[in-house]
Amino acid sequence: MDCCTTRLVLLLVFVQHFETSFGDKILLKNTSATDNSIPYNISGLTNKTLNDGIGFSCKVTRPLDLVLSVVAGVFIISGIVLLTVGYKKRRIAFFLVGAIGTGCLTYLVSLSESKFSSIIHVLVSVAAGLFFSLFSTTVLYIGYFVTSLFAGLALGFAAMLLYTTFQLFHSVAVPCVVIAAVSLIQVFITLWWRRVLLITSTSVLGASMLAGGLDYFIERLFILKYMEAKIFYSKIAPLCWYSFVVLAIWPALFIAGMLVQLLWTGKEKHKTNYVFIYRRKKRNREENFALTSRDGSFE
Predict the structure, then answer these.
(1) CA distance 270 to 101
(2) Nearest in space to 266 (alpha carbons), one of 205, 197, 204
(3) Residue 12 CB contacts under 8 Å (≥ 6 apart), including other chains
(4) Which of 62, 124, 133, 175 is the 20 to 30 A CA-CA neighbour of 281?
(5) In Å, how far from its chain's centre is CA 123?
(6) DSSP assignment of 196-226
(7) Cβ neighbour number for residue 117 with a 10 Å cutoff
(8) Number of domains into which the chain is organized
(9) Alpha-carbon gap, residue 219 to 241, rounded angstroms
(10) Residue 123 confidence (pLDDT)
(11) Structural domain of residue 78, as residue ranges?
């Protein structure tokens, strides 16, 4: 429960940061409410109301931010790398996932706990991401763990978004528990079936990063806030046609990444066979027993 609560707090801090930094005011209508003409503004999409499309406009008015544009570009490039050679170049994939994931989490925590300037926050986040990426690159089990963990989180959010299309939640704890459970299950099965599940994890993360970067350039991270409001608060907002395009890009890129790696770049297994400790000990005992038996036969 503490892990789930921490993730929820980080998500709320992330949304609050974008709201306060760029002046976005989210006033979403709950499905149980009766007022259908509440105006709201999400991520620079102006003149939107919930009155069956009356006054609805898909015009994006908020300009691009230089720092966020660079971050979104890094996400797009990293997503392409993960989708194409995520399994073949697993150390590069572990480096990218460790650096980006840890850097983002450190940035969110530093924003909520300190009052330093934005440059200090960015420098601390980059340093933490690079430091942790060294562990995920050198110790492959940490790389498998981190990559599958973030992939499980992405799959959990995708599953909750799909579920809320038919039935909305009325509790914040339920989606948190489900997302955390999916991420842990993804971690465990990845450690057992490493090739197929690592290809799956890198495809999921690559598609998520690429879709997230495109989402910023297209509609200023609207889908991120849309998912947060719909999954955790049972509040929905109308979508523009390009919002559906961004949502459709996510599974399409995932399928493309799976096909590319399974049929082309990830066909060959890695030569180094990493096994669990108890399996290694069991294999060593069997080898020692075989050597002892052979030596005894010659006496």
Answers:
(1) 25
(2) 197
(3) none
(4) 133
(5) 22
(6) HHHHHHHHHHHHHHHHHHHHHHHHSSHHHHH
(7) 9
(8) 1
(9) 11
(10) 87
(11) 66-232+240-281
Q: Phi, psi (5° rounding) for residue 109?
A: -65, -40
Query: What is the pLDDT confidence band of residue 271, given thresholds at 50, 70 and 90?
Result: low
- The answer to whether position 178 is within a domain reads yes
The reported pTM is 0.72
* Residue 72, in any domain of the structure: yes
What would the pLDDT profile of 204-219 be if each residue is shown by its tens digit? 999 999 999 999 999 8
In a domain, 8, yes or no: no
CA torsion, ordered 252, 253, 258, 261, to nearest 10 deg: 150
46: left (phi over 0), alpha (psi -120 to 50) or beta: beta
Residue 23 is assigned to a structural domain of this protein: no
CA dihedral 32, 36, 38, 44 (to 10 degrees): 100
- How many Å apart are CA 284 and CA 291, to the nearest integer? 10
d(CA 77, CA 157): 22
Which token pair is 246? 């961004």
